[in-house]
Specification:
mainly beta; globular
Length: about 160
């Protein structure tokens, strides 16, 4: 079985769900630890979401994946291949879309490190955001987690 078919087959009919509670200051230019791990994604990978942070452009989520994700050159040789797409919704119903990200091999070559980006920035009265990462390729596996946000200046 090819790598791609193996990835797609293992993603069918499973969802990984957890709730992560963190604090994000109301200026939305700070960070909050996530430290949530999802085992056996695509039956092979372990995804660890490290922290959520924002800057003036987007919500960012840092992650680490072991073993490493194949390089773009390796992936292009396996067409068609599976990729994740993300979206989010906050407790007010505001929607956020994935606007890409970046990833690369870690210095020790044992994992992939990356960042996912979502826009727009959260409304200052939102108290939580639920993130969903779905596999693009007509399979039903996804990673979902919620991050609780609040104005720490009022505590």
């Amino acid at each position: 079985m090819s790598f791609t078919k193996s990835l797609l087959a293992s993603f069918q009919k499973s969802a990984l769900i957890c709730e992560v509670r963190s604090l994000i200051p109301s200026n939305f230019q700070s960070s909050a630890p996530i430290n949530q791990t999802f085992e056996k994604v695509l039956s092979t990978y372990k995804f660890r979401f490290i922290r959520l942070y924002t800057d003036e452009f987007a919500i960012r989520i840092e992650y680490k994946c072991t073993p490493p994700i194949p390089s773009p050159e390796e992936i292009s040789a396996m067409l068609p291949y599976a990729t994740f797409w993300g979206y989010a919704v906050d407790n007010l119903g505001n929607e956020y879309q994935s606007v890409g990200g970046a990833f690369g091999l870690s210095a020790d070559k044992e994992s992939t490190q990356g960042v996912l980006s979502f826009t727009p920035l959260p409304d200052k009265v939102a108290t939580s955001i639920k993130f969903t990462l779905e596999l693009e390729q007509d399979v039903d596996e996804r990673i979902e987690f919620s991050v609780r946000i609040c104005d720490v200046s009022s505590t």
